[in-house]
Design goal:
Layout lengths: L8 H18 L8 E5 L5 H9 L4 E4 L2 H11 L7 E4 L8 H7 L2 E5 L2 H10 L7 E7 L12 H11 L5 E8 L7 H21 L5 E3 L6 H6 L4 E4 L1 H4 L4
Parallel strand pairs: 1-2, 1-8, 2-3, 3-4, 4-5, 5-6, 6-7
This protein binds pyridoxal-5'-phosphate.
InterPro entries: Ala_racemase_N, PLP-binding_barrel, PyrdxlP_homeostasis
Keywords: Pyridoxal phosphate
Family: Belongs to the pyridoxal phosphate-binding protein YggS/PROSC family.
Length: 234
């Protein structure tokens, strides 16, 4: 398979949708509960337009500057595209993010949440937020430990520019399937506790190109897929 052939984006999207459908059916979950975020970081505008033409509406980007350029070029042409920031967010970029994105999945401290809320333009709906949780406990990874996530969720409830939607995690890269599964399940447990307290919480963002089946089996509602749609990144 020539995975970098641009004309294959629609085909790859279909393959990913098929994988999601199969995983949903195997765990007896309604397919409508599982959404696909196409991760377009480092990929050109033309690739995003191909994915859009094939029906994809939600896109994920990691780097603020790159993302803003894409959003500014695409937004007028395709007003129903939705943009998620899934990469780290520094405070000096928060205003641009609050003005251009629909979702930020990497909130892990109150300070940044407060800035995003204050800087969210009043003509836009509240910014959708996922708290990033570090389930693997690796010190190299950003994200909250589970107990901190519940505390931060409580503080977010008072911020009018934000709408808390759920949790996001990037598990450690491991071939140990059981270990990965236990991390996904720990996240699912935390998500269920949050959803009981906060009625808007409906999003559990976990699973990528290589592990989306297990993520769906463990309760993911949003899989973030880059390589399997757009090909390998340089
Ligand atoms: C790049 C990235 C993805 C997509 O990863 P693939 O393995 O290419 O599917 C998903 N989530 C995050 C946070 C990423 O940075």
């Amino acid at each position: 398979m020539v995975i970098n052939d641009m004309n294959n984006i629609a085909q790859h999207l279909q393959l990913v949708q098929d994988r999601i459908a199969k995983a949903a059916s195997e765990s007896s979950r309604p397919l409508g509960d599982i959404h696909l975020l196409a991760v377009s970081k480092t990929k050109p505008i033309a690739d995003i337009e191909q994915a859009y033409a094939a029906g994809q509406r939600q896109f994920g980007e990691n780097y603020v500057q790159e993302a803003i350029e894409k959003i500014q070029q695409l937004t007028h042409k395709y007003p129903d595209m939705r943009w998620h920031l899934i990469g780290p967010l520094q405070s000096n970029k928060s205003r641009q993010v609050a003005e251009h994105f629909d979702w930020v999945q990497t909130v892990d401290r109150l300070k940044i949440a407060q800035r995003l809320s204050e800087q969210r333009p009043s003509h836009l709906p509240p910014l959708n937020i996922c708290l990033q949780v570090n389930v693997s406990g690796e010190s190299s990874k950003s994200g909250l430990i589970p107990a901190e996530a519940l505390a931060l969720a409580a503080s977010l409830a008072d911020l009018p520019g934000l709408r808390l939607r759920g949790l996001m995690a990037i598990p450690e890269h491991t071939d140990d399937v059981a270990r990965l599964e236990s991390q996904f399940l720990e996240l699912k447990q935390l998500f269920d506790r949050m959803a009981e307290i906060y009625p808007d919480v409906d999003t559990l963002s976990m699973g990528m190109s290589e592990d989306l089946e297990m993520a769906v089996a463990c309760g993911s509602t949003l899989v973030r897929v880059g390589t399997a749609i757009f090909g390998t990144r340089n």
